[in-house]
Structure formats: structure tokens, C-alpha cells
């Protein structure tokens, strides 16, 4: 990568560095999100007692054992983001309600794939919306219960996130398991 020097000001042009940093940040965020979903899948299996942690590192990378999981996770996340953005564009409250309604779509998709059922990405989101009927308020209150943890994470510059994020993700996985019992 070549840094261009401005002839007028004699300073370096950092826009190319910023663009590369932005792209790397997006790629890192996608990979981290996929890893988090993979760990949540392992938590669901452990909670359901369908998996033992004989080799924890490999077991937590279950998402990568099936290509359907990875592609489904990415595409469902994209569809959710688009639809939530459009609902938020209408008004903020409908966007929040839809984000709560669509929150279980990735888990539903994964369960359907595990059962051998072919499911479209849109259908997983629709089933999540149906599953969350009459449960959105309780899920919203559950999310609100983590405000203190998020504030602690912000105040500590992200260090507390090492403890709060696993607890949050495990809670969300357990919520899904209890919701589908």
C-alpha cells in the first residue's frame, strides 16, 4: 500500500489507510458474529443435553461443521437487518418490536436444518415472529435487565465485556431453549 503525499500541505493522505481499516473492521465483525453464534449453538446443545463438551474448542465451532449453518446465519442476519431498518425507518417503536420478533430466527433455522427440514431464510424469520407472539415483552424486559452490564462494559472500556458477553449470550441461548420447550 502506498501512502500518497499531498503536494499542497505536505501531509500524508490517510484516506486509503482508513478505507482498509474499515474493510478489515467489517470482516472482523462478521467473523466474530459467526463465532458468537457458533458458541450459542453449542450452549443450546449443552442445555438440551444433546452434546457433551469433550473437546470444548472444537464443539464451540459447530457452526463451521455445516455450510448451511454459516450461509444461513449470514443471510438471515442480513435479512433481519434490512427488515428492521425498514421498520425503524417507518417509526422507531415498530423497528424495536420487529427486532424482538425476529430475534430467534437463526436458532429456528438451525433447529430445522438439524431435523432434516429444508427451510427458507424468510420462513425462519416468519417462524421467529410467530414464536415470539406474546413473548416480546418478556424478551424486552430480559434485554433491559442487561443495561447495567452494558454500562459497566462501557465504563471499563470493554474489559468487563469479557465476563458480561458470555453471560449475555448464554442467557439468550437459554431463553430460546426455554421458549421452545
Would you give an account of this structure?
There is one protein chain. The chain contains 9 helices and no strands. With 181 residues, it is an all-alpha fold. Helix 3 runs antiparallel to helix 5, helix 3 crosses helix 6 and helix 5 packs across helix 6. It is globular, with a radius of gyration of 20 Å.
Using brief descriptors, characterize the structure shown.
181 residues, mainly alpha, 9 helices, globular
Major sheet size, sense and barrel closure: none
Structural class, from helix and strand content?
Answer: mainly alpha
Which stretches of 5+ consecutive residues score pLDDT under 50? Answer: none
Beta-strand content bin: under 5%
Cα-atom Rg, whole angstroms?
Answer: 20 Å
The span between the termini is 54 Å
- Gross geometry: globular
- Individual helix count: 9
**Mean pLDDT level:** 85
Q: Please write the string of helix (H) and strand (E) elements.
A: HHHHHHHHH
Number of strands: 0
Please bin the fraction of helical residues: over 70%
Write the layout of secondary structure elements.
Blueprint: H1 15-47, H2 56-59, H3 67-90, H4 92-101, H5 105-114, H6 121-131, H7 136-144, H8 147-155, H9 161-179
Helix pairs in contact: 1-9, 3-4, 3-5, 3-6, 5-6
